[in-house]
Write a structure and sequence with these properties.
InterPro entries: C-type_cytochrome_biogenesis, CcmH/CycL/Ccl2/NrfF_N, CcmH/CycL/NrfF/Ccl2_sf. Keywords: Cytochrome c-type biogenesis, Heme, Iron, Membrane, Metal-binding, Signal, Transmembrane, Transmembrane helix. One of its GO terms (molecular function) is metal ion binding. The longest helix is centred in the C-terminal third of the chain and has 24 residues, at 105-128. The protein contains six helices and no strands. Helix 2 (31-41) packs across helix 3 (60-74). 10% of the residues are buried. By secondary structure, it is mainly α. Helix content is 63%, strand content 0%.
Length: 158
């Protein structure tokens, strides 16, 4: 009974906390600045999650990066200046869509190269797959042929 009551109490507390929690308010008082922060945050990769932008991620580093973006845009820097700062600090990997240049060719063409290599290895293995001669002694091969001939003779119509 005690476990039931404690579970019921926990459920009530959890339900109350979720109903009292409201929608998160924007951090910047200026809605135009907040929209610029959001737009720019969608172009930068979360370095922890790696498959999310910093706008989507809830990781501490992503929150810090969004705050840096907000701070720099609040100081009057342009979007390109903020992007340049982030790339200088974290490298091209911080861009959600990295630029096409020799240093990032592996990011762009690496999956295609791996696919081509895999298909090449598969083709090579299939080509090498030749019916091998059975390594049976000649007398066993002759016996198998005799049995096959006998089986075919039985099945042939008279």
């Amino acid at each position: 009974m005690r476990k039931f009551l404690s579970g019921l109490l926990f459920g009530c507390v959890l339900a109350a906390s979720t109903t009292l929690a409201g929608e998160a308010l924007p951090v910047a008082a200026d809605p135009v600045l907040e929209q610029r922060v959001l737009t720019l945050s969608e172009q930068l990769r979360c370095l922890v999650c790696q498959n999310q932008t910093i706008a989507e991620s809830h990781a501490d580093l992503a929150i810090d990066l969004r705050n840096q973006v907000r701070e720099q845009l609040g100081q009057g820097r342009s979007e390109q200046q903020v992007i340049d700062y982030m790339v200088e600090r974290y490298g091209d990997f911080v861009m959600y869509k990295p630029p096409m240049k020799p240093a990032t060719w592996l990011l762009w063409y690496g999956p295609l190269l791996l696919l081509a290599a895999g298909l090449g290895l598969l083709a090579l293995q299939l080509r090498r797959r030749v019916a091998a001669e059975p390594d049976l002694p000649a007398e066993e091969l002759a016996r198998a042929a005799t049995l096959l001939d006998a089986d075919l003779a039985i099945k042939e119509p008279v």
